Amino acid sequence: MKNFGRRPYVLVLFISVLFFGCKKSVGEKETILKGTATILVDETLKPVLEDEIAIFQNGYNAKILMEVRSEKELMQAFLKDTSRIVILSRKLNEEEAKYFEQLKIKPKTTMIGTDAVAFISNKSNNDTLIALKDIILFMQGKPQTRVKGLVFDNPNSSTVRYMNELAGIKETPSEGVYSFKYNNDVVKFVSENDGMIGVVGLNWLYQPSPDMKSLIEKINVLSVKGEGSVEFVAPTQNNLAEGKYPLARDLYIINCQGSFGLGMGFASFVAGDIGQRIILKAGLLPVRVPPRKVIFKNKSNKENENE
């Protein structure tokens, strides 16, 4: 009688373990279009990637968790295996590539579009032109008369790294340079302070959040004259396509999952027709401009007779 009384409880426990074990197993199964994955995203690219992920999830049985960080923080997480999928404005460098080679993982790099580093100023400043040479001289600590101060999003961001490389310096100068945490902080600061030049990712200007739209109206996007050029060029899709804007940067999805997982499926989606249309709508330059269908309608016989 004693043993018989325990059997229902043992049976219920066994079924519960079996059920949850099976549920976990199914939940963990990941394919290129199904499952759950975490993707590390450069903060300067957040708006467009939010759209890409939303549309991808609506079309497939997939859940993508987006972790937005500065470039330096992204790479630290990427190399620590927080996630094996990262979206950057550069390819892996030699040291990073060698790290994955030692792990016997071959990174799959997919170019998804072209972004730009843009300069912004307060609307009260009527001068909307800036020479890249003056920005570089300022960052190098050399005399120039046009730049009073630069405002960056984050000291560890991709825009800081990009501008440091252009200026040929390892550390951003402390004097006259300000940094916050996010691109919208830069827009806000510049909109409220005259005389400063903000450095932001172009995507934030084309896709501002609702609370940022009023601030965007208070800034100018500057046209830039590249070194050796005589023309001032605005950061537009057309100028990116023609290779005129001097601060263009290509965007990449780098997948080191080493398997046929969601990273591969998402990269294919973003590089495909729908994903490229999202890139285009976001104000950036897609790798392949989505084709437009033009339908020619023949006149009906009745219409021809009336002519």
UniProtKB/TrEMBL annotation:
<dbReference type="InterPro" id="IPR050811">
    <property type="entry name" value="Phosphate_ABC_transporter"/>
</dbReference>
<feature type="domain" description="PBP">
    <location>
        <begin position="35"/>
        <end position="272"/>
    </location>
</feature>
<dbReference type="InterPro" id="IPR024370">
    <property type="entry name" value="PBP_domain"/>
</dbReference>
<protein>
    <submittedName>
        <fullName>Phosphate ABC transporter substrate-binding protein, PhoT family</fullName>
    </submittedName>
</protein>
<dbReference type="Pfam" id="PF12849">
    <property type="entry name" value="PBP_like_2"/>
</dbReference>
<keyword id="KW-0732">Signal</keyword>
